[in-house]
Design a protein that fits this description.
Layout (H helix, E strand, L loop, with lengths): L1 E4 H6 L1 H4 L3 E5 L15 H16 L4 E4 L5 H16 L5 E6 L16 H10 L2 E4 L7 H14 L3 E5 L13 H12 L3 E9 L5 E10 L2
Helix pairs in contact: 3-4, 6-7
Length: 210
C-alpha cells in the first residue's frame, strides 16, 4: 500500500487517465443493508465486469472507500487481480478525509475492521482532504477528483436519465459531474430481491449517451 495525496492522483492523469476507471454507487441503506450474504452474488458479478473492463484496456480502478458499492467494487477488483493473475491492475482507494470510518460499526459488513483491511491491501491510497474538512464537501471533492482522473465512470444505477434531474444523492451528483466533464458513463443496472437476507442482483452494464 502506498499513501499519496490529491496532487499525486492528478499529477499523472495525462498518462494514467486513459487506463483508469472510477466507480460510484449507493450506500447500504439504498442496497441490502449490512449482511455479507446479501452481496456475494453481486461481487461475483462485479468480478466479471472488472474482467471486461480489463479486456477494454483499463488497468487502474478507483473507488472511494465508502460503505456500500464503493467497497463491493474494491473487493471485486481485488478478487479479479488475484484470480486472473493480472499483476498490472492497480486497485486504488480515494479517501475523502482521515477517519471517514469513525462513525461505522467496528465489526461486520462494511465495518471499520473491513475498511482498515481494504486500505492495507490496496495498491494505492489517495488522501483527498484533511481531518478538518467538512464531511459532505470532502466526499463531493473526492468524487470529483476520481472523475477527473478517469477515462470512464461506472455507476451502480438503475434510474435511467433521472440522474440528470435528481437533487439528492452522491451517485447522481457524481454522474452529473462526469457527464458535464465529458467523461463516458456506464450504468450498471441492479435490483433488490426480497428474502432473508435480501440480495443484490446485478443487471447489464450499458453506456449512457452524453
Amino acid at each position: 500500500m502506498t499513501h499519496l495525496d490529491i496532487e499525486d492522483l492528478t499529477a499523472r492523469s495525462s498518462t494514467l487517465r486513459p487506463r483508469t476507471v472510477c466507480f460510484t454507487g449507493p450506500r447500504p441503506k439504498r442496497l441490502c443493508g449490512y449482511d455479507h450474504g446479501s452481496y456475494r452474488g453481486a461481487v461475483a458479478g462485479l468480478v466479471e465486469v472488472v474482467e471486461s473492463l480489463y479486456r477494454d484496456g483499463f488497468r487502474r480502478f478507483l473507488t472511494g472507500g465508502a460503505q456500500g458499492f464503493d467497497q463491493l467494487a474494491f473487493w471485486a477488483v481485488h478478487k479479479a487481480k488475484g484470480r486472473s493473475g493480472h499483476p498490472d491492475i492497480c486497485n486504488a482507494v480515494a479517501v475523502p478525509f482521515p477517519g471517514q470510518e469513525f462513525r461505522w460499526a467496528e465489526r461486520g459488513c462494511f465495518g471499520q475492521r473491513e475498511y482498515r483491511t481494504m486500505l492495507a491491501v490496496a495498491d494505492r491510497v489517495f488522501h483527498i482532504g484533511g481531518a478538518d474538512d467538512r464531511r459532505g464537501a470532502a466526499m463531493h471533492r473526492r468524487n470529483r477528483a476520481m472523475v477527473d482522473a478517469a477515462a470512464l465512470c461506472v455507476a451502480l444505477y438503475s434510474g435511467g436519465p433521472a440522474f440528470r434531474d435528481a437533487r439528492t444523492g452522491g451517485t447522481e451528483a457524481t454522474m452529473r459531474y462526469a457527464e458535464a466533464a465529458g467523461v463516458p458513463l456506464r450504468a450498471l443496472d441492479f435490483r433488490i430481491d426480497a428474502g432473508k437476507p435480501a440480495t443484490l442482483t446485478l443487471g447489464t452494464l450499458a453506456e449512457i449517451p452524453l
